[in-house]
Batch of 2 targets.
Target 1
Amino acid sequence: MKTHRIAQLAPLVITWFLLTCPLTPSVKAESAETGSSVAGTVKFQGTPPKGTRMEMSADPNCAKAHPGPVITQDIEVNGAGGLEDVVVYVTDGLGDKAFPPPSQPVVLEQKGCAYRPHVVALQANQKLEVVNADTTTHNIHPMPVNNREWNKIQPPGMPVEESFAREEIAIPVKCNVHPWMKGYVAVFKHPYFAVTDKDGNFTLKDLPAGKYTIKAWHEKLGTQSQTVTVAAGQGGKVEFIFKQ
Ligand SMILES: [Cu+2]
């Protein structure tokens, strides 16, 4: 009879232990030191070069995806000088900590015979899902220096899933069928990176408190660097200015 009562109490005892076990305080301490974000803007000063008209008539499927002429800009600047497609990332300050890749893939779409987005960033060993939304066949061909090179033909609708094992900023991507198609894939060993939006804005989320070197890379304007100190619970602000 007594043994039977102890067996009934066992789930309550286990619940009590889980609620009060010593793991709880250390989890709290770790979340207290994260949660600081570094936000900012990348700006361009100067006169951006004129865009180039893309001649897509070699593939009627591409040409018919655009009602008017297609002008591409290597330097995409908004009215306020905000610079798009800049990769902003932490280089020093994270120590030897390893960061497992997220399970969600990053999507790179081929649409209107162009890469969308033009610059994509992901973690090493995170899946890159390449989508062909066009009615023509593409051939996606990243040309890395630190990673394995691959080159895949992609008929309309066929999915391609790949990844890169090592950090590399940034890998040029081309299409072997359409010579005007150009893009970049930036690969990081940690999750503290962002690509600026059309207004030049970026956010590096949830950086632990510490001192970091933050870099900004642009395909034509090069790389800039600055040091930022992040205090626990306090967001930082960074501005980069590229001149030409
Ligand atoms: Cu193509």
Note: Confidence is low (pLDDT under 50) at residues 1-7, 9-32.
Target 2
Amino acid sequence: MDVRCFGGKQPTDRLTILAIKSDKNEITKMTQMRTDWTRAEIAALFDLPFTELLFQAASVHREYHPPTQVQLCTLLSIKTGGCPEDCGYCSQSVHADSGVEATKLMDVQAVLQRAAQAKDAGSQRFCMGAAWRNPKDRDMPAIVEIVKGVRDMGLETCMTLGMLEPHQAAQLAEAGLDYYNHNIDSSPEYYERVISTRDFQCRLDTLDHVRKAGINVCSGGIVGMGETREDRVGFVHTLATLPQHPESVPVNALVPVKGTVLGNMLADTPLAKIDDIEFVRTVAVARITMPRSMVRLSAGRESMSEATQALCFLAGANSIFTGDKLLTAPNAGDDSDGALFAKLGLTALKGEEPARACKSAVPAE
Ligand code: SF4
């Protein structure tokens, strides 16, 4: 059992370990994280002097995670564009005039080929995204085949397909899907200003279906959409007060794409790029409030300096997407990531994620 399951407290001797192991309630308690954060507490973290916040986040980070290892994930768009939703940041929405062509769901073998390439490039997880409001039941057999095929290669699987019904979540769980991504995007208040075709509760309902099906949850959002600090507080607060923290928390910086609502609104304004220090603060507060989760630097990384990325790693980010493209947005390429890792002395994560290691430590009912 990994000692990080014990909130970073190293059991001092064998007797202690045995005593802890013998008490299932104690183990269960220790594998649970604090989910009663208040907005005031989270706002106070954001308000800390930057160096103090970074120190606290780095301290929490190394209690739960190997501090110099970063998880590598690859993201593939398996069905691009033509989405009926109106997410204001998204170039794949039919409401955007971004020039993204709609495609059909990729052929199963073509997806598996791309997964094999990702594995060869060192990825641990293969994430697949489809631009749908929700998958249709007729799509599910192909999706299930893809999940099984990618898993058979020894890669972790993650899907993001839009809203899920409970029976679809169950099908994905049965296929062995490791993670389902469904972002809450922003605070409940700001969400309404970015998306009108479904409400915030729909997002939470899908996360609930995923959790109940036994699939690990990946949920985060986007900063730099013109939201306020208070919205960023509300965004982290929503995730940190879910009944169980998401195992993965992607933190994206908006890539303002011309033709999207937010791209048109923010491009060429001072708000077109989130302030680097505020972005690092958001990463740090996510790390402190959700200590065991993987915090992933996602979209927007390609426009960050190496120094900003280094600060993010110090603040507790420990997962990135590799490759040249994130769905339809540019991403930092494998070569530049390799150079940055060498410069910073970082290596690819090899072991199991702490949140999952702790789950398997809890005895079955
Ligand atoms: S973010 Fe997803 S749901 Fe929203 S428009 Fe884009 S593809 Fe559709």
Note: The longest strand covers residues 69-79.
